[in-house]
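Note to self: keep these together.
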Amino acid sequence: MASTDIPVPRPLDRPDSFTQRTLRAVRDLILSGHFRPGDRVNEAELAEALGVSRGPLREALQQLTSEGLVHRIPHRGTFIPEFGATETVELYELREAIEVMAARLAAERATPEDLAELRRFLDATGEVLHSSDEAHYPRDLDFHDRIVAIAGNRQLQARCREVHQLLHVARSRSGFRTERAHQAYDEHRAILQALETRDPDAADRAMRAHLRTGLAHVRQLFELSEPD
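Structure:
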């Protein structure tokens, strides 16, 4: 029997859920590129634009600070972080550690239905990429998210989501190129083939090679974007 000294839980009130909606809205603004690295977030203007009070917005910004998507500097305000080459490389190294393990687990745990769905997913991605010479890899068709989901480790999935968010902001500084999208697609096909053979070592090699090629590409973009 529960102790009578423990308060009876009550349903969460509206402000709690409202804060979560505010959090999602601000996170989406950051990840969509509405705010750029180095931008200052004007809380008064953003609260007015979203139609919310400063309270839910500040709670949302506090959560985004813990995720690394904003920096709050005392007496100065809230800023979108700027990632240099060193910070971006560190994120890629962390990403490799997470996603190579995810690929190994996915090779062991994927069901036939998982693999069939992943192949259909890549087929749809290929149609988008081949529809135009200028096509970028579609954001809503994220192959890596699918691999991590198939791995079936919720902690791994949570850490991967955090790293992907930070990398999305970091890479917005150096930009993207369409030729890398097509190359990445071919590398994704190689990863899928390794998963279909149920070979964790092959999945490890394919994912590691893919991520290191991506890192080399990002390094090059940073070099090109640095001022003379």
